Amino acid sequence: MQALQQFFEENDRFAKLLGFQIEEFNIGVAKVSVIIQEEHLNAANVVHGGFLFSLADYAFALASNSHNKLSLAISANIMFQQAKPNGKLYAYAKELSIGNKVATYEVRISDEKDSVIATYTGTVYRKDSNVI
């Protein structure tokens, strides 16, 4: 697991750019955190929906690739529950179902008080090749 985590930390350039930190990484689950910065806000001074989607998508990518079988998103959906102007966010992804070719995951984005900010579901296609 350590080598796989290191692979993502070193090679996911977009996650690095956005400041995402891996908090937990195990088979079928992942937890990612980020501290909200001014550049993450939209014109209404709350976290941009695209930023929230990216946070959830990174946790989803980690959880779905945790079996070291290259898994690529084929579907993703997000629902925003509340706006957040500052603080820290956590995205927790967990495996709901896994098959030989398709797997489904749920991601919950919350804040420091464990209030739900957004929920995300995603489905991946599992390739025959390994991640690393």
TrEMBL record:
Q: Looking at the record's lineage, which domain of life comes first?
A: Bacteria
Gene Ontology molecular function terms on file: acyl-CoA hydrolase activity
Q: Which UniProt keywords apply?
A: Hydrolase
Q: What is this enzyme's EC?
A: 3.1.2.-
Is Membrane there in the keyword field?
no
InterPro entries (alphabetical): Acyl-CoA_thioesterase_PaaI, HotDog_dom_sf, PAAI_dom, Thioestr_dom
The record's annotation in SUPFAM superfamilies points to:
Thioesterase/thiol ester dehydrase-isomerase
The record's section on Pfam families has: 4HBT
Name all Thioesterase domain ranges. Answer: 45-117
Check the record and name the NCBIfam families matching this protein.
unchar_dom_1
Kindly provide the name given to this protein in its UniProt entry. Answer: Acyl-coenzyme A thioesterase PaaI
- Phylogenetic lineage: Bacteria, Pseudomonadati, Campylobacterota, Epsilonproteobacteria, Campylobacterales
